[in-house]
Amino acid sequence: MEALIQWLVMTFPPLSEGLARFIVYVLYSAVLAFVAPVIIVVAYTYMERKVLARIQDRIGPNRAGPLGIFQGFADAIKMLTKEDVTPASADRIVFNLAPILATIAAILVFAVLPVAPGVIGADLQAGILYVVAIGALSEVAALMAGWSSNNKFALLGTFRAVAQLIAYEIPIVLAILAVVVATGSMQMSAIVAAQDIPFAVVLPVAFLIFLIASIAEIGRCPFDLLEAESEIVAGFHVEYSGMKFAFFFIGEYMHLFASAGVATTLFLGGWRGPFAGPDSLLGVLLGFVYFVIKTTAIIWVMMWVRGTLFRIRIDHLLDFAWKFLVPLGLILLVTVAIALKLPVLSTFVLRWVALLVANVMTALLMVIAVVALARRSRSAALREVAGIEY
Amino acid sequence: MLSEFAFVGVLVIFATMLPVAGLAVAWLIRPKKPNPIKQSTYECGIKTRGETWVQFRACYYVFALLFVVFDVEAAFLLPWAVAYQQLALYAVIEAIIFVAILALALIYAWRKGALRWI
Amino acid sequence: MTIEHATQIFAFVILTLMTLGGGLAVVTSRNLFHAALFLILSLAGVVGYYVLLDTGFLAVVQLLIYIGAISILILFSIMLTRGLMIPGQVQRNEQWWIAALVVFLIFVVLVVALWQTTWPIASEEALHTPNVAIGQLGAALVGPYAIPFEIISVLLLAALVGAIVLARELENHSARADAETGE
After folding, report:
1. Which terminus of chain B has fewer CB atoms gathered within 10 Å of its CB, N or C?
2. Domain residue limits at C23
3. What is the CATH number of the domain that holds B65?
4. Do B18 and A152 touch (CB under 8 A)?
C-alpha cells in the first residue's frame, strides 16, 4: 500500500500524501466490499457444486450457460426476486440488522489479508488477533438473528450455533499462538516474511487444528448441525427468506475464503513463491496468483472433507472441541515453547527440525492417549451392557 | 499505525453499503403480498402454542464462561508469544505455569461433568 | 488543521456519541435484549477510543473479549431467563429524582477532580514508537509483573470453579423441581 501511495504522489504532483492515501484506501475498500464478494461467491459456489457433484458421481450444474458457469448469477437473481416473508411477531429492527452485521463481519476480515506482496489493507500490529476478534463479531449476529425471529427452533438453533462457534474459537487461537511463538510477531506481513519454510511443514499439528477448527467455525459439514434440514430446519435462519437469507449465505462463503486465506498466510507462506516479491509489478501479480492458488487448494480440501464425512452430533462436536482440540492445542503450545528454547539449537535448520519433532511427538502422545481412553471406555461399556470382559 | 485503522474504518463504511444496497434493490424488485398465514411463526406446519422461551440449562452458561476464561488466557498469552524470542527460559516456565493452572480449570470442569451438552 | 487531525476529531465525536448514547440507551430501553445490544454498541465505541489512543492491541483485545465473549455471556443469561417479547417495564421507580441528584453530584465531583489534576503528557518519541509495544508488554508480564500474571490465572480458575458449583446447584434444584411437578 505504501509503495502505491508513494507512486501516486510522485506521478500526480498536486496530490498530497494524505489525499493519495485516502484515494488508495477508498479504491481498495470498494474492491474488497463490492467486487470481491461477488467474484468469491459466484466462483466458489460453482466450484463447490461441481466438486461435490463429482465426488457424488454426478455432473452438477450444467444448464445455466456453458458448463453451468452462470449458475451463481441465476441464484442471485432468484434470491433478489423472492418475497421476503417476515414473521409478524418478529422484532423488526434486530431482524433486519442481523444479516447486515453478518456480512460486515465477513468482509472486515479481508482488511488484514496480505493478498500480494505489499498489498495489504491494514498491516495491523495485532493483525492475526483482529481476525479472531471479527469472528467473534459474527457470533453476535447469530444471536441477534435467532432471538429476533421469535421462534423456538430459531432460539434452540442459536444456542447450538453459538456454543459451537465459541467452542472452536479456542483451538484456533491456540494454533495461532503456536505460529506467533515461532514467528515473534502478530503482524500478518511479518508472519509471511518468516516463512522461508512454510509453517505447515514445521508445525503440522497446528495446521491441522487450525483447519479443523476453521471448518467448524464456518459451519460446514461435518460440523453443519446448525443448518441441517433433518435436524433443526435451518437453525437460526429459519425465518429468513429472500435477500436476507442470501446475505447469510454470502457471509458464509466470504468467511470460507477468509479462513482459507488466513490459513494460507499462517501456514502455507501466503503469497510467497518463485519470483514473487514486492520489487516489480510482475512480482506483485505473481504473488497474488500464488495466494489465490493456495487458498483455492485449501478450499478444495474443505469441500473434499464436506463431500466425504458425515455430520457430527452436537455433543460429540462439543466434546471434540473441549476435550480433544483444546488440550491438544495447549500441549502443542507448551512443547513448541520448550522446543524453541533448548540450548542445542544453533543453526536455523535445527530450529525448524526441533519444532517438527515436537509436533510429531505431540501428535503421537495424543493418539496414544485417545486410543487408551477409548479402549478403557469401550471395555467399561461392554462390561456394563453385555457382561463381556474385553 | 493510526492510518491502518483508518482503512478499517473506511472498509466498515463500504461493507455496510453492500448489504444495505443489496437489500434496497431486493426491496424494490420483489413482490410484497403479506397475509397472516404466511407471516405466522414457523413450527413445522402447526400453530404455535405458548410463549417462545427455552428452558434454562446451566450447561449453556458454563460453556460460555469457559470460553471467557480461555479467551482471557489467550489475550494474556499473546504478548508473551510476541516477546518469546527475547525471553529466557524462566519466562517460558512462568507461562507454562499459567497454562497449567488453566488446564487444571478445564480438567475440573471435565471431571465435574460440566462439559456435557444435555 | 490537517486532514488527519480533522478525521481524528470527527472520529472522536462519533465514538463519543456511540459510547454515551449507547450507555444512555442501555438504562432507558424497555426491551432487555435491545439494552444488551446497546451495551455492545457502547463497548464498540470504547474499541474506537483505544484505536485513537494508538494502542491497537488493546482495541483488538477489547473487541475479542468484551464484545466476543462477555457480551455473549450477558446475552445468554438474558435469553435463558426471559421469555421473548414480554412487554418491557420502564426502568424507573418513584425515587428517581433522588438518584438523579446523587448522580449529578458525583458528576460534579468527577469533573472538578479531572479539571484540577495536572496530567503528565508523554514525550513525542514515546508517542511514536508503537512497534515494540506488544513485545514490551509480553516481557513485562513475565518480568516485573510475573506474580500478578500468575494470580490472574488463579482468579480465572476460581471464577470457573464457582460458576460450575453454582450451575450444579441450579441443575439439582431444577431437576428436583421437575421431579416434584412430574409426579
Report:
1. C
2. 1-87
3. 1.20.58
4. no
